[in-house]
Design brief:
Radius of gyration of chain A: 23 Å
Order of helices and strands of chain A: EHEHHEHHHEHEEEEHEHHHHH
Number of helices of chain C: 12
Strand content of chain C: 15-25%
Largest sheet of chain C: 7 strands, mixed
Distance between the termini of chain C: 44 Å
Shape of chain C: globular
Strand content of chain A: 5-15%
Number of strands of chain C: 14
Helix content of chain A: 40-55%
Radius of gyration of chain C: 19 Å
Largest interface: A-B, 82 and 82 residues
Structural class of chain A: alpha/beta
Bound molecules: thiamine diphosphate, magnesium ion
Largest sheet of chain A: 6 strands, parallel
Shape of chain A: globular
Structural class of chain C: alpha/beta
Number of helices of chain A: 13
Helix content of chain C: 25-40%
Oligomer: heterotetramer
Amino acid sequence: MKRERSHKPPVRADAGTAREWAPGRFLAEFPIYRVVDEDGKLVAGAELEMPEAELLALYRWMVLGRSLDERMITLQRQGRIGFYIGAIGEEATVFGTVAALAPQDWIFPSYREHGAAFLRGLPLVTFMANLFGNAGDIVKGRQMPCHETWAPGHFVSISSPIATQLTQAVGAAWAARIQGDDMVPIAFFGDGSTSAHDFHTGLNFAAVMKLPVIFACRNNGWAISTPSASQTVSETMAQKAIGYGMRGERVDGNDLVAVWTATRRARQRAAAGEGPTLLELVTYRMEGHSTSDDPRAYRPAEVVEPWKRKDPIMRVKKLLAARGLLDEAGEAALREEVRLELQAALQEAEAFPPKAPLASLFEDVYAEPGWAQREQLAELEGAIDADPRVANPRHVEG
Amino acid sequence: MKRERSHKPPVRADAGTAREWAPGRFLAEFPIYRVVDEDGKLVAGAELEMPEAELLALYRWMVLGRSLDERMITLQRQGRIGFYIGAIGEEATVFGTVAALAPQDWIFPSYREHGAAFLRGLPLVTFMANLFGNAGDIVKGRQMPCHETWAPGHFVSISSPIATQLTQAVGAAWAARIQGDDMVPIAFFGDGSTSAHDFHTGLNFAAVMKLPVIFACRNNGWAISTPSASQTVSETMAQKAIGYGMRGERVDGNDLVAVWTATRRARQRAAAGEGPTLLELVTYRMEGHSTSDDPRAYRPAEVVEPWKRKDPIMRVKKLLAARGLLDEAGEAALREEVRLELQAALQEAEAFPPKAPLASLFEDVYAEPGWAQREQLAELEGAIDADPRVANPRHVEG
Amino acid sequence: MPVMNVIQAVNDALRLEMRRDPRVVVLGEDVGAFGGVFRATAGLQQEFGAMRVVDTPLAEGGIIGAATGMALYGLRPVAEIQFADFIYPAFDQIVNEVAKFRHRSGGQYTVPLTIRTPYGGGIKGGHYHSQSPEALFLHTPGLKVVVPSSPHDAKGLLLSAIRDPDPVIFFEPKRIYRAAKGEVPEGEYLIPLGQAAVTRPGTQVTLIAWGAMWHEADQAAREAEAEGIDVELLDLRSLQPLDVEAITASVRKTGRAVVVHEAPRTCGFGAELSALIQERCFLSLEAPVARVTGFDTPFPYTLEAEYLPRAPRILQALRATVTY
Amino acid sequence: MPVMNVIQAVNDALRLEMRRDPRVVVLGEDVGAFGGVFRATAGLQQEFGAMRVVDTPLAEGGIIGAATGMALYGLRPVAEIQFADFIYPAFDQIVNEVAKFRHRSGGQYTVPLTIRTPYGGGIKGGHYHSQSPEALFLHTPGLKVVVPSSPHDAKGLLLSAIRDPDPVIFFEPKRIYRAAKGEVPEGEYLIPLGQAAVTRPGTQVTLIAWGAMWHEADQAAREAEAEGIDVELLDLRSLQPLDVEAITASVRKTGRAVVVHEAPRTCGFGAELSALIQERCFLSLEAPVARVTGFDTPFPYTLEAEYLPRAPRILQALRATVTY
Ligand SMILES: Cc1ncc(C[n+]2csc(CCOP(=O)(O)OP(=O)(O)O)c2C)c(N)n1
Ligand SMILES: Cc1ncc(C[n+]2csc(CCOP(=O)(O)OP(=O)(O)O)c2C)c(N)n1
Ligand SMILES: [Mg+2]
Ligand SMILES: [Mg+2]
């Protein structure tokens, strides 16, 4: 990893006054990249690189993602699932990025990128079974809802601890380089996550090793109740790349096309050996942090207002309409199709038995259960036989 | 902590190409601040703010620090102490910084800043007793040599884990603000430490809270066998401040006067409520990492050569000579004085009983020893009574 | 006397102590304007301002590192870790720094820090919102570990923790945050750390629990009584310092012991209690010390009821132990 | 057969496995050009290049996080943590990520990662170059924990660890890095994880140790023999998986047990062994299971000899246990 400094450092004699940054300097140095404006029009000088078919397909995905989130939030309110966390208002950051990657690129999600798994083939039914944590859950009811895994689509296991996935993505990129694979992992995280340890080590390791990684920061303005301005006083998240000698860029996270194009460029550079990129996707968290959170306790409704006009789905809809790719009838048909798809999946998912078998608790701790796991399974089975209350949830929550 | 972005972010439409940094850009943006050049002459346009008396006093301290390090390294080779780690070649970063602070400012050392403790009144004898870990050791033989603590001089306990002191310094600054005290802590750390978690959280917390802290990075080019170019590909350590919206500055770490002046400015700003500063003190580790390390295994002697000319002590000596503040006779007298001072201290320190009392092992775990500590002390005393080998070190190392 | 739940009792203790002692500062993620994701710090920033009740950036290592610096400087910080499952990024600061400062500095620097964190299962939190890591800290000399089981104890123990000269990790069993209600005296009162409560005297078997599991143990003890098993139930309240006298006194009397905890069995605090009891009460023991615990797996979501060592499993262990 | 010390045996195992399996990668601080501060990886970068033997930046969390990503992708990374005392910045990655990946993903992702780290006291390392944190990882389901006591075992166990489908923490007792020399077969051989070695058969008391303390236990056993005490000595070698049969078989025979470890007593692995033994051998036990351990203090510098549970203290415990 040794590197030589090519340039001789200049010297100055004026008494030391540390660099202070003129307000707005980095906002100017990191302008927000945008292709489609809030009225669905191409901004001056921009061209549409995304094929129209792709645009239409992704529009449908965004509509599906939004409808799914809304439906599942209702489900949670009805008490049919225990928890939900989605990406309402942030759809472009999820679908725009992953659509621009190659199918073999690994995805290291935070916890809002369910749409990325769908793009990679995760069946809606399987996702919903995870929300119920029932016998149809591919992770066997072991984690909270919205903590799915989908290896067939290289969608790595979601975990709650913030930012741990960044350094893991770096390792995967490193492994791919060693194996000589054309694989560029993407790591998703939020603005709050930039304060975490693993943001620092992840970006630094990637830059030092010049690894092909894309760091996708969904700057949605909030970390639960904490505004991004309280996470950092740097004017942008993108400028944090400077400290790592890495490339950084700000992108309109509510502009599907800009997100897609920027991600595509980042992937091309990474694959070409030009190293990692930090993409700051500027967006907004329109709802509470999750179904456990009520933003009214800390966020006045007004601050959300301006962002409604910037809605990523509306924007694409207008663009499609302007290009004659989608009329009202088509829109209505699409939405009905999505509604039925969700309904069907939900029915199927809810129909699985409520629990994976008891043994599943003790499996996958190790490749082979140890004596402790085997004995404890027997112990638990015996306890349930002796007293069914041992397996009775009502008895817990009561 | 809420903050409002004063500036509206500009937008651009050109297809996203993330910012790449023209080589040398940050070297240019963060020129090295220097007052006294390698020949002991003021660089063009620089003026000497440091009083001549201070200059002379600090020269003596640097000579003492260098002589102490050399003497203790010999002592370790002779097997009279177990370990030593010093600051040969980096003296200006230690004495220049702390001399510019106020007496009430807390010092959060890494492990090379023994000189800072001396400036704050740590007696040489007490320091040396810590090297022997004997009954005269103020930390009671509990840590390795060179892990001293000197609360009377606000010199906080040294610990081995890298960079942990940064966030602690931030907390102290925070506490001082809450108490309304004029106290500006300084945290010392190396170039390798910039890769550590606590560098990231320390700088970020300080910047977000706009706390009065000085982060003094001794960039001595190496982390044991790892060159700083393998720690980060950012061209400077100073530019890492950008990611935190913090002030950053590069200083010639072998120029006592520049270090002193830059630290003074940083302290003034901090006290004036202008927040923290990251000072990158560019210096060089002339010896092995510690007495446990032999740099010949990874560092060709040639690379050290150019730094010999930059020696921080020579530079001040030349400056003093040029100003008629120190002639050869004075120099000789000073060195003899220092030699005798060290010799006397060493004799006194070595004379203490070899071990603190057995009970000291069980004290200070808690304010009051718990039953476990009390019982275990009795258990150990009984064991030693029954078999003196229990307390026989030779029996361990054998 | 006002009736409170555990969250209200914690909030009451924090407010009282912040009023009494200007050195007390609260910091953590979302603890300020919002008042914490469990609302335990609700209203504190409004009363004491943003200087003393601080929303920090999202970094537990930073929270504990900064709190340590505050404590070194003389404040009495109370840091909140949003969930015990997320305490590990601060593990180095807690285990290598906080726990060792007094010792390594020869007593020159101390860290009177309280770390509050919601812990344990029973709220459908799965792997990462359910963990009970107390044993990791109990293996670290220099730390104290407290776990209340009621609103009354939560207030009295938290006040003692904040005033304690040593660092205290204060685990709040979130399963009973709202479920456990009870009378809580107004104003301040201190429950000394290191005193277990014998919440039910008995003669046949000693049952040892803490936190949320005390409630399960208590129910099991009632059911056992109905079967004619006379249980002595201890609520440890503080695990370090540990009230070893209360434990040995009880086991010497009953000759039998059952220990309950949520954490995985292997190397849980139950192992230490089992070892201590057989070291100190060997000749009185008429049955092996039994452990009713979480299993050696990550904490599950759907099978949470089966995982938790609840009353029915405890009852079975009591039966087996008395008939051994 | 060549005679090696532990460092040479570790180096030999790494070289053999890197030659055999291109998926094996070594990463850590100073492990590359320099070959590690203890020289355990000496010559590897020269033979296998900087792609497979990597000097990382100074961040243990980054080392383990990156190694985890490599393992997820199919490599067999061997990460070095320079000293076990510095493993805590990686604690979150190890305990919340590495240990849980297989379970939380329903078996879709696994982490065949080996973490090598020099550990334990006896080299005048004080607080931060002496710690023995094995119990913290043994309380975390999903991790395996191995501690060799000889060059022969170090090689055979490390090869098994690297090939193991689960994450293994491989603690290398640095006190015997150079002190322990012995014959080591050339070429590869595997010592299965989970098999204790009965290094001395005996009838009167079972003595259980691992790592550097096995040597102290062995010396104590010899001295005991001279006093007519017949000791059966077990070297656990692997703590997770644990060879519980070997332990119970021995204690059922001897009726007495003494456990030795360097780590502080409270919540150390000795507590788990004590609990397991009395749960499984209660009716055979003729004396309480004794623990000879480090004390409940940070690891000292000058009083290291007194702190370590060395032969003289072990001998005293053997005497007390057989005469109980
Ligand atoms: C280490 C850790 N600390 C705290 C939490 C609790 N927590 C969950 S999400 C969250 C906020 C994350 O904000 P951000 O990174 O901006 O992502 P967003 O939810 O806005 O997408 C917090 C504090 C956690 N999951 N992990
Ligand atoms: C967390 C942690 N990891 C590793 C080490 C081992 N170690 C001690 S000093 C050092 C290098 C530090 O380099 P730098 O920060 O540049 O300081 P310098 O020694 O050059 O002054 C390392 C890796 C440690 N002490 N703590
Ligand atoms: Mg956010
Ligand atoms: Mg350095």
